[in-house]
Structure prediction request, 142 residues.
Amino acid sequence: MDESHVQVGVGLLVFKDGKVLMGKRIAKHGGGRYCGPGGHLEFGESIEECAIRETLEEAGIEIQNVRVICVHNLLVWEGKHYIDFGVAADWKSGELQNLEPTKRENWDWYDVNNLPQPLMEAEDDYFEAMKTGQIWQGTKRM
Prediction:
């Protein structure tokens, strides 16, 4: 895709038994940082459908109770412009699998009060949105 176009990203916080799913990225995009599943919204796909698909493709689990918790405009993040939807969901079924080993080192469930570091920049906003109920996180130049 031409990098002069705005892209739509969907990132997730998936919860199970009071813990959140995080994995350490090893790909160029976000390498060394922790985040939940996520990816690009495909043509004709809802945000919820994207969240369900990406989680199944990346971690091999099914989710439910998908809800948008955060929206922001990330200007020139790693050379790209994103409209980002942060989504929360609950684990439904399945065992964790690392289905994209060239992009992510691992998956694990972390206590929300003891998160691995460093987090991807958007993850901080997702957690803040959940605490405050403020969905619009504004525009950020990164």
